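Schema walkthrough. Field components (list of strings):
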Amino acid sequence: MKRSFDAIVIGAGPAGSSAALTLAKAGLDVALLERGSYPGEKNMFGGVLHRLTALEEHFPEFWNQAPLERHIVKKSLTFLTEESSFNVNFDTQASDRVPYNGYTVYRPRFDRWLADEAVKAGAKLYCGCTVEDLLKDGAQITGVKVMRDGGEIKAPVVIAADGVLSFAAKKAGLRRPAFDPAQMAVGVKALIDLPKEVIDDRFGLVRDQGASNELVGCTQGVRGGGFLYTNYDSLSIGLVMHLGSLSESGKTPYDLLNAFMEQPQMAKLLKGGRLLEYSAHLVPEGGYDMVPETHGPGILVAGDAAALCIVTGLNLEGINLATHSGMLAGKAAIEAHQRKDFSKQSLACYQRMLENSYVMQDLKLYRRTPHMLHNDRIYTQYPELLCGIMDEIYRIDGTPKETMTKLLMRAVKEKIGLKNMIADVYSGWRAL
Amino acid sequence: MKINVDEIFDVTSFRIDREPHIVLDTKVCVGCDQRGCTNSCPARCYTWSEEDQKMTFVYDGCLECGTCYVVCRQNAFTRWSYPRGGFGVSFRMT
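Field assembly_structure (string):
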């Protein structure tokens, strides 16, 4: 292994490979270090990849080039109780035309493909390479120490794309040494084998159309939600839960996931399926207030490592922000090379690029959302309220009906309380 | 169809290193009044025995998610790192 490069990228996930691709295409000598035996080996997510506008620069026909499962045409939000579900469904032909708006993917395939593209452009990929420490000259980061061969690799700029726990950002003093469990969520997922035709029939899909479904009310009061996504011939089903709330609840993620899969409406969709894989990962859900310093002397931080993640309850964005930030980190490193200046001040151009892009602008826009989602009523009372109202509207049981207004007011008073409802609507309005 | 974390090796692949990547000082756990790790860990790597007043930790089925690292309020880890290259969990599809 060579010991000196123009740039080192830690982590061959979406952020890291995007950075390496950008650097390699500009003719820089870049080392892409991956701790897995192959890129994507350690990575999991819910399953939906939003449109990656940043990558379209390199892959104008992304949908024909990347290894994708299905493109999403149907999006739904479900409020779930133990025996009922209330569904808001949006299905559009507009999402059935290129450029598609989102896809389901398998990370071990997708991440490997993206890393291979960086390699084709000239990046050097080293797998099985866990970074142990940063090399420093005073405060200036000058490279990394890896566990493999106990070796040292040098470069004037290091891009930390080492994922949600980013030990590189910690060692560079860019993130706080301890995480707040209230700002972190754990995702657990079961991958379920089902024939393509069965999935098409159950979800009302044809060709390689896909469906994505977000759910609330499936976590037994733990702050969080569920998801169900269609791959080509498998389903991804899982839960994402705030760590603080989960830890206090005494409940376990796998028991909650099992109960979710056994809920009658969910069980019908999964019927006959076989469990292929079980996986888990953390999600940085703290939003803008959780973002660490994105740059320091000789170092840039991208993707999950920089907590670039947006959770609104309707959308969960991460990989799109990761690829975009990775690409910008690559561009910033290129500019630093042109200036031959790798000081913190020089690398601050990365922060400016982030601020000028949708990455930081959207994070700022949704700054209040994580706070709004720390409201326990969302996870049980509201799903029960909605399903209860629907049940009363549709039920014919020989008793006289109330007017809709009366029914609504009574249900709100019983389940939520009028004051709480007004406060929640106001906070939701401000946050979204 | 059910997830049984005690038989996690049936569905998720691992290459287990002889050297643990996480080392827990279980003495510290005795004085902890939360032990959020025991219920939050998605692979049930942490088990508290009320009878023996003892924490047991196994790293074999660790999914490397970091939940324990975040929920531990006692800094009970002597070492918390990812496994050496080539070892640990190996997701195939997910």
